[in-house]
Description:
The structure holds 2 protein chains of 2 kinds.
Chain A: H1 2-10, H2 15-19, H3 21-27, H4 45-66, H5 77-93, H6 97-108, H7 114-122, H8 132-143, H9 149-161, H10 170-174, H11 176-181, H12 189-199, H13 207-220, H14 224-236, E1 241-242, H15 261-270, H16 311-317, H17 337-343, H18 360-368, H19 372-389, H20 401-418, H21 423-432, H22 442-449, H23 457-474, H24 477-503, H25 509-512, H26 517-541, H27 546-559, H28 562-565, H29 576-583, H30 588-614, H31 625-642, H32 647-650, H33 661-666, H34 685-695, H35 710-721, H36 725-734, E2 735-736, E3 747-748
Antiparallel strand pairs in A: 2-3
Chain B: H1 11-14, E1 21-27, E2 30-31, H2 38-53, E3 59-60, E4 67-74, E5 86-93, E6 105-113, E7 128-129, E8 133-138, H3 140-154, E9 158-160, H4 165-176, E10 187-192, E11 201-206, H5 208-218, H6 227-245, E12 253-258, E13 262-265, E14 269-272, H7 278-293
Antiparallel strand pairs in B: 1-8, 1-9, 1-14, 2-7, 4-5, 5-6, 6-8, 10-11, 10-12, 12-13, 13-14
Helix pairs in contact in B: 2-3
GO biological process, one term (chain A): mitotic sister chromatid segregation
Protein name (chain A): CENPI protein
Subcellular location (chain A): Chromosome, Centromere; Nucleus
Amino acid sequence: MWRRQSFETLKKPPQVHYKNQTDLSAWRKGRRTDPEKSVQSHQSPNDQEHDSEQDSLEEALSYFEQVQARVSLKKNNVLQKHLTTVESIALQRGLPPEGFDVLLKVALSGKLADTVNTRLLKSLVPASVIPETSVVSAVSWLCVSKCSGNIQLLFLRWLITMFDFIDHKEELHALYGFFFSFLQDEKMCPYVCHLLYLLTRKESVKPFRIRRLLDLQVKMGMQSHLQALLSLYKLFCPELVTITLPGKMKTYFKNSEGPWKAAINTVRRRNQANSPVFQTLLLGTGQPQSRKRKWNTQLMIPASSTNRNNLEEDREKNCVKLYSRDESFPVEQLQTFSQLLQNIHHLEFPSQMGSVLTNPLLLHYMNCIKDESVYLRLYYWMGQTLQEECTWCVADNNQYEEEFKDFLETVYKTECFLQEGFSSCEEFLYKSLPLWNGVCCRSQVLRLVSWIPLSSFSEMKSHFYDPLVQLFFTSSLYFKCSVIESLKELLQNWLNRHMIHLDSESDSQVHSLNTTLSGLVNMVAELIHFVGWISTVALHLENNHTFLLYFILDFYETVCDIYLRYNLPLLIMPPPGVFYPALLSMDSVNLNQLCYIMYRYRTNLVAAKENEQSKKQMLQFKFSSQTYQEYNQFIIAMVGCLWTSSAFQKDTHPQGLRMDDELLKKTTVKEFKTSFNIVNHPAMMGYAVRFLQQAWPDDTTFNFSLIKGRKWDWYLEYLYSQGLKGLKVFIESSINRVSQASHSKAENVQV
Amino acid sequence: IFPPPQHNADPQKTAFLLRKQWTLYSVTPLYGFSNARLKHYARLLSAFIAAEKQKGLAVEVGVELDIKVAVSTIPDLKGSDRDQDAILVQLSLRSPASPKNSEEKLVWSGCFCCVSGDHLSENLPEDFTCLPLFLANGAERYTSIVGSWFQKTFDCCFRRLAISPLNLSWMAAMWTGCQVDKTTSAMELVFSAPCLPYPLDISYAIHPEDAKALWDTVQKTPGEITQEEVDVFMDCLYSHFHRHFKIHLSATKLVKVSTAIASAHCEGIIKFLQSKYLSGVLMLLTELAISQIQ
């Protein structure tokens, strides 16, 4: 590394360079690293250009190293040349770590004119890092005050802007007192405050410093930079000082990135991978309050702030803990996931638990720390907030509906994040649903419904199902659809919860839930029966509306797969009030969905039967023969309706389609026998027409009876190609085609 | 209904509660509160109040400020030993003229208590302190500052404790049946007629001995009250009123009950008048506060 050696011959402090080894080589990327080889060999023009830049920068640096006092810029071409070199390289690529010591020294020593010093300071943009030692020596130059006030200010602003680029800060911290003494300078005070703000640690906060700042406050009045520093002091030592920030504050420090902003961005873009993240101000002013509300309003989700309440107590008790409290990581500083991982062993929950709702990192933390107190604090806060702010339970609250909506939304998102419902939310729903009009915050309330935890049915019935039913039957079609959708999600959440518990069965937490498998089965069954019942009634009320049917069948898509997908020994068939409207639906989407559902029922039942035969242990949860019987009745009706054209003859279900021929003749429908099959079914007729058009483009008679034999098979292929996948799996699994030629001989398979 | 105090409470220690108007709040369990650190809390709270009053200016903790805060326990204010000690917070104004020696003027007091409400704390971890009933006397501004500080510091929630007409009628019945040494003031019930363009309050005053006589005919078992008895008692009063004024009080809302024991307003304001029955009334209010929390 010849360059390092050449620099070391010029300058003294060697320790910096070892630290920056990697940075230097990164900066010199593209240059050969072998000192033996000649400079010119094997280089691209680009590299050569860099090299010449490199050399001229070196020349410039050594010039500034040795420059004599008071060289005039105007008269001195050499100075002009070197200054321009430094500027152009700095603003494009940034300066190497070694450059800072020389340039800071010359800029702050007052040797040259202020215009030169200013230009030099403005070009101090790092390519990688700034060595701490160069900053420390610059501060010592600052203390001897050889340079003008403007340069001092510019240097401070530079230091603030470049703070995150300084490679180490230990020695800089040791200079805290020096910086602090600059506070008395009125012009420097705002910048010094900012710098101190960046440097302050808990141990920097001392009673005498607080008193000094309070004196300044008395002298200068309310100043945002003093407020910021004092707030930080309060954060670290609330037992020494306190301050309430006015609500409207936005910025505490004027934008100090100043002249370096563009250059930093350029350089940052160049080495994006390892650019330091700028420290963000961690003071939260209270969130902007939309309007004046009661002091004890809880709708404002509190900002995360450290719980300092126990600090002094520990000190008083002088107890030795596993970790020192002083090391604990303030939640205000928690910004990234990696910070969370690094500090997870000494992170504290905020003083107000409600603040975790808006802090995903703390939610992660909450997920790993299963602390009862944490949940209790959240439980009380959320329970009180929901009750107090509920817009339909509390008079005069209706003007705050938007805020309450947002709050419910946040709660719902948190539940999704944690994958569990809050009991305070459940209680709120039980208390408020009987008073709900079904309009206020509708989608939010219905979403929260999907996270109701499993509880015993008697409670669910009186608190939840009964009030919901009243609203359900009296509200619009869309409300009905939304309710069914929420209940589907509720069912899925319960089933997922059960799956997780199956996985962690050895955990003691499972038993704390106090739900036995049969209890769970009963609760899930009650929910499914409840939905079956309201669906039947709703289809009556809404005249078998396709849209509603879609949501209902969507629910049954989960139900039919419970045994296989969720490992729960439960299979419940849809009630005939749902099955027949779907089977006779005018819409192919519904019919296709029903086919898929019946296919999954079959798969689940077959698997259950196999399991029963192979191992006898699960006998207590054997599906009753009634389930098989119901399935078989439905499958006969379906096959009759879609395949064998015998729906009116073979259907054995008491609420089914079976009709006497006499009665059918009275309808005066000519070919009633074939009016229900895969061609003539009202939901399929559209496909049949399109198929005929494609197969016999010249025939306009639409003779459906042409579709038979091989055409029947083609027609099937056509249907499958139209996306009727449910129909496909149903026919392939449930219809045993004895002869490819004669579809009428096909038989349904019963399980 | 009013069990005798289970321990020897000193009436002097709780006399400050009498004959003053208290605003009622329910408070969820305080997290991380310790009786051993009351002095520390007082210092922090006093600086917090100063900082709140002059927003934007920092205040050093521990220096003499114009508002003095005292935080203390009142061990006499509880129903049983399982209840937490009540906490009294007092704000007094130092006279600015001679801060050292002049007397301080009490401007605000707040009292956290729990009288026979130990079932709230039954399954709670140790780091929670259950003092579900909070009473405040003084300017609302101070209530808001002190309340905010407690909310922030101990992660608790304050809610105004309104008293429903049903509970007010219970109070009317219960307090009617209480023995008072010298009967001076009349029992007064205030009703408010709803849905009127102008407020209409109806005050119904009854001689306490008449009310007691009526209650004695209604109550079947001494020491025990049922909802039915309360309903009968109120219905009798209503029909008596209707006989004279042809107004159905049952169609109005009961907003205030005043007796020699205490007076209570539906908005959650109470005035204790009898030291003997203080803990009994507080017990009822504790019960109401707990039901609002749970």
